[in-house]
């Protein structure tokens, strides 16, 4: 399932304006389900946030959470949930949260089309 992001300063985007979506990849869903199984807790959700810092200005952080706060946005797919806080929501419009395994290790990543530059590891970005 996808969620419409109101990245246009509170003006809802829809089909007429090009729908800006936030995607939750199949590999990220699969990994979150594996984490839930390992922990024995199907209530765990993946929270993605953006904070100032890192080598490029902003950095992504991921954590596990059991509670959705009133201002949070959520993306649900195949029985698992991605949580985005309200401030990060605007910076993630059009992005995809993915899970990758490679030479750098295994990690959740954000493919953010709004980023004008990123650091070498992809953990931080600038807009």
3D architecture notes:
This protein has 127 residues and is α+β, with helices and mostly antiparallel strands. The chain has two helices and ten strands. The strands form two sheets. It has a six-stranded mixed β-sheet with strand order 5-6-3-4-10-9. A four-stranded mixed β-sheet has the order 1-2-7-8. β5 and β6 form a beta hairpin. The longest helix is centred in the N-terminal third of the chain and has 14 residues, at 26-39. It is globular, with a radius of gyration of 14 Å. The two termini are 26 Å apart. Mean pLDDT is 77; it is low at 1-20.
Could you give the topology of this structure?
Blueprint: E1 3-4, E2 21-24, H1 26-39, E3 45-52, E4 58-65, E5 73-77, E6 80-84, H2 86-91, E7 96-102, E8 105-111, E9 117-118, E10 124-126
Parallel strand pairs: 2-7, 3-6
Antiparallel strand pairs: 1-2, 3-4, 4-10, 5-6, 7-8, 9-10
Salient structural properties:
10 strands, six-stranded mixed β-sheet, 40% strand, alpha+beta, 127 residues, four-stranded mixed β-sheet
How would a crystallographer describe the biggest sheet? 6 strands, mixed
Category by helix and strand content: alpha+beta
Q: Point out poorly predicted stretches.
A: 1-20
The dominant shape is globular
Q: How would you write the strand order of the largest sheet? A: 5-6-3-4-10-9
In percent, how helical is the residue content? 10-25%
Based on DSSP secondary structure assignment, what is the total number of beta strands? 10
Count of runs of 4 or more consecutive helical residues? 2
Proportion of beta-strand residues = 35-45%
Q: State Rg.
A: 14 Å
Mean pLDDT: 77
CA-to-CA gap between the ends?
A: 26 Å
**Can you write the helix and strand succession as a string?**
EEHEEEEHEEEE
């Amino acid at each position: 399932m996808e969620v419409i992001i109101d990245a246009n300063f509170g003006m809802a985007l829809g089909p007429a304006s090009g729908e800006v979506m936030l995607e939750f990849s199949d590999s990220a869903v699969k990994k979150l389900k594996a984490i839930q199984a390992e922990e024995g807790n199907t209530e765990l959700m993946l929270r993605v946030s953006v904070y100032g810092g890192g080598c490029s200005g902003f950095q992504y952080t991921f954590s596990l959470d059991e509670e959705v706060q009133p201002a949070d946005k959520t993306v649900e797919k195949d029985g698992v949930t991605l949580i985005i806080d309200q401030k990060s929501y605007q910076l993630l419009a059009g992005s995809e949260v993915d899970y990758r395994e490679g030479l750098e290790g295994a990690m959740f990543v954000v493919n953010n089309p709004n980023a004008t530059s990123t650091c070498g590891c992809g953990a931080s970005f600038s807009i």
